[in-house]
Amino acid sequence: MTSYRGVLFDFSGTLFRLEPDPQWFAGLAGPDGRPLDDAAQSELLYRMTVPVGVPVPMDDDALRTWHARDLSSEDHRNAYLHVMASSGVTDADERSRLYGEFSDPLNWTIYPDTAAVLRAVRDAGLKVGVLSNIGYDIRPAFEREGIDGLVDEFVLSFEVGHVKPDAEIFRIASAALGLPPEEVLMVGDSAEADGASRTIGCGFAQVDPVPVAQRPDGLLVAVRGAGAIA
Question: What is the rounded (10 degree) CA torsion for 70, 220, 123, 226?
């Protein structure tokens, strides 16, 4: 076992995953008036959930909004409306409706081992934090699953004014747990975003953000492999 005294968990692709209901896309049409096919829907989903990079062409104003998307709810909404408009969703009302589905925390699906891992970390005497680049409150997803009480601190980018991979957000999150970074393990699906925690001395364990049904125990394997729990 290591000397970790706390674990920070990423949200998207780590604890929960956004897996759209096919009905969200019902009636969506592209510029040619034809329904978006499966390939177009899959590409749209990728663009709406990509953790880093710029998913569609953007001018200066759109690019500013994109880079600020996880710093305010307004920029988050505007950034993703632009992504949808650039991905073939031509109707403004449909873009607004679809954004509402994507940004509803109750539409996220929990990974099978999330609750067990959070409970095991707490039972081991470690602090638990959730650290997410996000433009809206995700706490309701945890409340729905009855696991909000297993989280000591939520550090959400739009609330603290910093985003991963900025080292400052990891400092803020470690401090929220009352721990020095070297006693904190960061668990996430992005080596670029979450792995940047290593620059201030945190440990890092990576998970694969595959569909929920394909990862029954990947979080447990990662946290156990890092030595945070037995």
Answer: -80
**Which residue, 7, 48, 14, 12, is CA-closest to 215?**
14
Distances (CA, A) of 168 to 118, 174, 187, 199: 24, 10, 17, 10
Residue type for position 193: A
Contact 133, 193 (CB under 8 A): yes
Both tokens of 151, joined, read 């989280």
Rounded Cα–Cα distance for residues 4 and 125 (Å): 10
pLDDT digits (tens, 9 = 90+) for 173-205: 999 999 999 999 999 999 999 999 999 999 999
- Number of Cβ atoms within 10 Å of the Cβ of 137: 13
DSSP state of 36: P
Beta-bridge mates of residue 16? 12, 110
Token representation of residue 71: 């710093």
> Are 41 and 24 contacting, i.e. CB atoms less than 8 angstroms apart?
no
Measured CA distances, 51 to 46, 119, 176, 190, 218 (Å): 9, 27, 23, 7, 19
d(CA 119, CA 129): 12
Would you say residue 1 has pLDDT above 70? Answer: no
Which helix (DSSP H) or strand (DSSP E) does residue 139 occupy? helix 139-145
How far, CA to CA in Å, does 90 sit from each of 19, 34, 35?
Answer: 22, 11, 11
Peptide bond into 209 cis (omega under 30): no
